[in-house]
Design brief:
Layout: H1 3-37, H2 45-54, H3 57-66, H4 70-78, H5 82-89, H6 97-103, H7 106-113, H8 118-126, H9 130-136, H10 142-151, H11 154-164, H12 171-174, E1 181-183, H13 188-196, E2 207-211, E3 217-222, H14 223-228, H15 235-238, H16 252-262, E4 266-270, E5 276-281, H17 282-300, H18 313-339, H19 342-347, H20 350-378, H21 387-417, H22 420-450, H23 459-482
Parallel strand pairs: 1-2
Antiparallel strand pairs: 2-3, 4-5
Helix pairs in contact: 1-2, 1-3, 4-6, 8-10, 9-11, 16-17, 18-23, 20-21, 20-22, 20-23, 21-22, 22-23
Length: about 475
């Protein structure tokens, strides 16, 4: 089975589970409603309720959840309304709580944590590795973190303190401390005996890290080299030294690019003294890339944060207010631009029907430019030296598109209204506004990055505002000059 078919199989499987859960919940709710509506004179109403509702469908739901992976349960919880979500959450085995809290989105995690007691949160958190506790810590009440911190061994406390000290966009926030390392002066036979002492190796262990007596990082020993070489071979003679090393303060997106470029499964994290500090694995990098992609989509749409699709109307509305308010302001500005040319529009009513074309095409073109620039910034492909060349290129693309599609729009205006001047104005306005779109489409992400902000934040909102207002002003201004 190839990767595409396997992925499709897993997707269909979890969707089937979701449908089964929804079906059982619907049957449970229906039976509960029927029983509550019955007018029972006897005192056996509650046993009947337990038999029909709680023991029938909830038992089936319990069996279904017990056989599911924590990631699949997290997917299902995100797809359920809050009341059903909390019902299902209450039926999850306690030993899975921590893994599920790590898997669900931040917005859904808040609703689950708010339903848990202090003891339940502490027990769920204590099941996790140190790096996972650090990921979960910002969403937990402080008293729970204090309880968990006190329960950890001294070594793990220091690891947790270190992991929590790094920003979310750094390698330090991605790394974990669950790794295997050996000395460079031992034989492969010693390494093999050491590995067999583990009940199981840490996930994504494709290589063993090699250190000296002072724990300074020296290289890596891929697992396959342990298998194919003789037992008496010394580790230092066959270890690989020309490998990617990460540092805790490195940017996480740079680490993600390294994993993609060099097809890494794991990479060592080394501190400023050259000592092995931790490791980063491909599963964490994939999660980071997915979260960054989702954040970029939200930011481009002007949403402040990730949103629980079943959150209250009030909470969801507030999440969308900031950029809607900005959009409203820009719309008022665009309306005032049009208002200043009321006399022109009254004399040539056709202008009112053609204005949206000028603004819409430029806005779409600008968004295309912005998408390409944001991607290039994410890949660190744009530098101070090549930025000017890119701007010239985008202006040239805007000029070419303006001549081609502006000419098409001008011909359309001519055949529709039989006015050569109107066709020329239409073509000129399209060309100029596409040039404006190319400029702002490149400038906005670059300026946002220069200010230390995410280049994707609200970019589409600002671009639409500029191309709309600019398009109206250019089109009506040219019409005032050449048609009136």
């Amino acid at each position: 089975m190839n990767e595409t078919k396997r992925e499709q199989h897993y997707t269909e499987n979890v969707q089937d589970h979701l449908k089964q859960v929804e079906s059982l919940l619907q049957k449970h709710a229906l039976l509960e409603t029927i029983v509550h509506r019955q007018e029972l004179a006897r005192d056996d109403r509650h046993p009947l309720l337990d038999t029909l509702v709680h023991k029938q469908h909830l038992a089936g739901l319990q069996r279904l959840l017990d056989g599911m992976h924590p990631a699949d349960i997290a997917y299902i919880l995100e797809a359920l309304p809050i009341e059903q979500r909390l019902l299902v959450w209450g039926m999850v085995r306690p030993e899975l709580d921590g893994d599920i809290l790590i898997e669900v989105s931040d917005a859904v995690r808040d609703s689950l944590i708010s339903s848990m007691s202090r003891d339940e949160l502490r027990e769920a958190t204590e099941q996790l590795d140190t790096d996972e506790i650090a990921d979960l810590a910002p969403d937990l009440p402080r008293h729970v973190i204090r309880d968990v911190f006190k329960s950890l061994p001294i070594g793990e406390r220091e690891q947790l303190r270190a992991a929590m000290s790094y920003s979310e966009d750094s390698v330090g926030a991605l790394m974990d401390f669950n790794m295997v390392h050996v000395r460079e002066d031992v034989t492969l036979e010693v390494v093999s005996r050491y590995l067999r002492r583990f009940d199981e190796l840490p996930d994504h262990t494709d290589q063993v890290f090699v250190v000296d007596r002072d724990d300074r990082f020296k290289g890596v020993l891929p697992i396959n080299l342990i298998v194919v070489n003789e037992p008496e071979v010394i580790v230092g003679s066959i270890m690989l030294t020309d490998i990617i090393q990460l540092h805790p303060d490195d940017k996480a997106d740079q680490a993600a690019q390294a994993f993609e470029r060099y097809d890494l499964v794991s990479a060592p994290v080394v501190d400023e003294d050259g000592k092995l500090f931790g490791r980063v694995t491909v599963n964490v990098v994939l999660d980071f890339i997915r979260e960054e992609s989702e954040t970029d989509l939200l930011n481009q749409a002007g949403l402040r944060e990730e949103e629980d699709i079943f959150a209250s109307v009030w909470k969801s509305a507030k999440n969308r207010w900031m950029w809607l308010a900005l959009n409203l302001c820009t719309a008022f500005f665009a309306s005032r631009v049009i208002g200043n040319f009321e006399g022109t529009i009254e004399k040539f009513v056709a202008l009112a029907t053609l204005m949206p074309i000028v603004a819409g095409i430029a806005g779409n073109s600008a968004n295309q430019t912005t998408t390409i620039i944001i991607r290039s910034l994410a890949l660190s492909q744009i530098t101070h030296e090549n930025a000017r060349r890119l701007l010239i290129k985008e202006l040239a693309i805007g000029l070419l598109n303006g001549l081609v599609w502006g000419g098409v729009a001008g011909l359309f205006a001519y055949f529709l209204y039989h006015s050569i001047p109107l066709g020329i104005v239409m073509t000129s306005a399209m060309l100029l506004n596409l040039m404006v779109g190319a400029t702002v489409g490149m400038a906005i992400p670059l300026v946002m990055q220069r200010l230390g902000r995410d280049p994707a934040i609200g970019s589409s909102v600002m671009i639409t505002a500029i191309t709309d207002s600019g398009g109206f002003f250019i089109f009506l201004g040219l019409a005032t000059i050449f048609l009136i």
